[in-house]
Protein: Transglycosylase SLT domain-containing protein
Amino acid sequence: MTRQPSIAAALVLLLSAPFAHAIDNAPVNALQSAVAARPAAVNAPAAFANTASLKVDDYKETDVWGRIRSGYAIPDISNNLVERHVRSYSAKPDYMARISGRASLYLFHVVQELEKRGMPTELALLPVIESAFNPQALSTASAAGLWQFVPGTGKDYDLKQNMFKDERRGVLASTDAALTYLQRLYTMFGDWQLALAAYNWGEGNVQKAIKKNQALGKPTDFESLADLMPAETRNYVPKLQAVKNIVANPSQYNVTLPVIDNQPYFTTVDKTSDIDLAIAAQLAEMSVDEFKALNPQFKRPVITGDDRTKILLPQKNAEKFHLNLAQWGQALSTWTTHKITGAKESITSLASKFGTTPEVIRQANNIPMQTRLKAGSTILVPKTSASVGNDIAENIVDSAVMALEADRGEPRKSKATAASNSRISRNTNSRRKHR
Structure:
């Protein structure tokens, strides 16, 4: 859905601001909002009741922005950094079409999960800063997804990262992990601004800064500690405050926010067997890009994994998926795995063996040109008649690795081998001369 440039600045935000650490390269998807049931009422957990006490169904707004405003609970800050970021964001509307298009897919879910936990709803705006609501965002520190988890922290919060999927990018799993992490940080510091600083900088660093100020008899609130923080963290909370200000009163900043309906955008579909990503999109009557926007965690052309693997689809597409699946008379997956046993198994020889081309194997496995597979690597290959109907085993999904090395062509003979061959050749020639 095309939106006017005037809706631009509230979400555009941090891609243009200094210290933004997400890569903004995903296209805007033209998905339409799906109608689904309102969520059931959920009371706020006692530990966070001081930050939000309303039930989910107490929100009567028709727009998600109003719902977010209703749950603001983090104390405001007002300083030059906040003013600078507000000016920067509101002056750059061009990014809004991309960011608002992406955010409209995820915001309802994030807000609903925050309310269930009794957390401040302005935290739903944090992905604007972290990733510009781009689930494919990857930082220079290898932080990935909407919430920008680095690999180690992702593992700490049970986000699976293997050859087939990276749950740091998955909407459901990463949101659950991020909110759990933020709750833990709030419990640790008793202050949302310090919790946010720790989310960006690490709790150990914030604890050290607190101890340093305590030793000097100085206050330990965020603004008092800001001078001890790196520039990115020093700007982190002011950036969120700037976004809050714009969302709270968009007309004051000449901003018109896009309407995001206060209803679920997507629903979950259980995966009962391996299914090609392209086939899943076809059954749902969606483009592959649209499908990937809701299911960015899948890294290979086949969706596999354990029973907890879910597919997200807009409600109307989920209905089409089930109808088309019931009439589907072909294999759902055309891929299986193969383990490389030695140097003789080149990509060219594998392509011949499995009736495909080297380009198809390289593309399916993200193998760059001028590289070859090391022994022990597991790769995707097209299914043969012998493997049709067999799913990829869960232990392979969890343990498969792929290692590459530079492809320098045929290995050169060692000096010893060359000398030995030379002697054999001379002896053979000598015998021939005396025949």
User: Anything to note?
Assistant: Residues 1-59, 430-435 have pLDDT under 50 and may be disordered. The CA atoms of residues 47 and 118 lie 8 Å apart. The chain has three domains: 5-253, 266-326, 335-406.
